Amino acid sequence: xxxxxxxxxxxxxxxxxxxxxxxxxxxxxxxxxxxxxxxxxxxxxxxxxxxxxxxxxxxxxxxxxxxxxxxxxxxxxxxxxxxxxxxxxxxxxxxxxxxxxxxxxxxxxxxxxxxxxxxxxxxxxxxxxxxxxxxxxxxxxxxxxxxxxxxxxxxxxxxxxxxxxxxxxxxxxxxxxxxxxxxxxxxxxxxxxxxxxxxxxxxxxxxxxxxxxxxxxxxxxxxxxxxxxxxxxxxxxxxxxxxxxxxxxxxxxxxxxxxxxxxxxxxxxxxxxxxxxxxxxxxxxxxxxxxxxxxxxxxxxxxxxxxxxxxxxxxxxxxxxxxxxxxxxxxxxxxxxxxxxxxxxxxxxxxxxxxxxxxxxxxxxxxxxxxxxxxxxxxxxxxxxxxxxxxxxxxxxxxxxxxxxxxxxxxxxxxxxxxxxxxxxxxxxxxxxxxxxxxxxxxxxxxxxxxxxxxxxxx
Length: 459
Ligand code: HEM
What we know:
- Its EC number is 1.14.13.133.
- This is Pentalenene oxygenase.
- Heme binds at residue 406.
- The chain is α+β, with helices and mostly antiparallel strands.
- The protein has one domain (20-457): CATH 1.10.630.10.
- It has helices at 20-29, 60-69, 81-88, 97-107, 113-134, 145-162, 169-184, 190-193, 206-231, 239-245, 257-288, 290-299, 318-330, 362-366, 386-394, 409-426, and strands spanning 44-48, 53-57, 142-144, 337-340, 345-347, 350-352, 357-360, 427-431, 439-441, 445-447, 452-457.
- The strands form four sheets. Strands 1-2-7-4 form a four-stranded mixed sheet. A three-stranded antiparallel sheet has the order 3-11-8. A two-stranded antiparallel sheet has the order 5-6.
- Helix 7 (169-184) packs antiparallel against helix 9, helix 9 packs across helix 11 and helix 13 crosses helix 16.
- The chain is globular.
- The chain binds protoporphyrin IX containing FE.
- The site of protoporphyrin IX containing FE has 23 residues, from helix 11 and helix 16.
- Residues 92-93, 104, 266-267, 270-271, 274-275, 278, 333-334, 337, 398-400, 404, 406-408, 411-412, 416 line the site of protoporphyrin IX containing FE.
């Protein structure tokens, strides 16, 4: 008899009924384990408090309504900016309405399919650098892999955006300061999920504002230098140059330095934490399923050429892509998103008053027991089944959906697939049995005490 494959770790659920204060306390620790088990089966859940009402929507057509059919009626809540504004200013992640639309018109062309091909050499170089960095750690002793995936993802962002590696003095300083910033801000989106009245003390800290100022000063330096290079006709053809030279097709205006700094900050924050989390979980899942790891290693032989491969090589990494997709399903880096309704709504025969919190949860949707076959198990082959294909269309949104879909979705899929293949081609990844990861969500879904693996060279 064969033993069933182990299920990947899932956070414990809280008791069904708890007081508001207990909920807030649990929420501060981790938004995943603060939720009850029933949300994995519910189509909608209402949460009433004296201060606000929130509605988690898991029913695919409700999610569709909010994100795709009438997104302008469900803007991002201003409360999201509670903790983010000092760092992100007026970035595309926080804005709404006409400002947001103008920003997307300038940013989106830089991430279109054709441009992805241009960023490929920089991604490849970042992957090779990650393989080289891990060499000293590949001695069979436990390694905390999130720290490495974070380093690699930050390297990808700096190389593709500004054509500089993470070793560059300013890039390295931004990376360090970001880590410090996140340490001072334990629950980034608390304000967005739990809109407390004004008299409740906020969790803002002086240190958060200070690190945000340092990061913005560093990014301003990079942006100003680039502006000078663009004027001199000496700028490299990377994402920063593309974005800074794109005119809004409707107004003819460009980003000024300050608005560009806001966008660079969000590219770094949204593009590095998320990709790092997904890559670390994908490596963990492959350690848990050595059969899949061997398949990925075999597929990665297409990367064997000593010279830089063509961009088209990514399309040959289909199985690796499905592994990465499955990692994004089980551990969506952005586990929940919040919107606010502008108009009175009726959801599932219940009145939803104006200004309620509409919570969309990739975490619950991706593990929904009434939608997915065997939702908690790791099975990249599911995407070839009828259920998998159907759920990909209606119950899978690691990058959100609709007009506010992640700008970097295509970029992140290429990056994740490529780096996963490069790493697994070079090393074997094994579990550290004594240190199984416990998923928790702060800014992104991470291992509570990191994600520990043992690495050994394959050759
Ligand atoms: C695996 C990697 C990634 C995941 C899972 C991810 C996920 C998401 C999600 C769920 C959102 C929507 C958030 C919301 O509406 O509240 C988002 C927005 C965004 N992401 Fe990503 N992201 C990833 C990588 C990237 C990368 C690499 C970049 C850029 C280089 C990026 C840039 C952005 C930006 C600018 C937004 C704001 C879009 C808007 O509001 O119009 N992301 N991302």
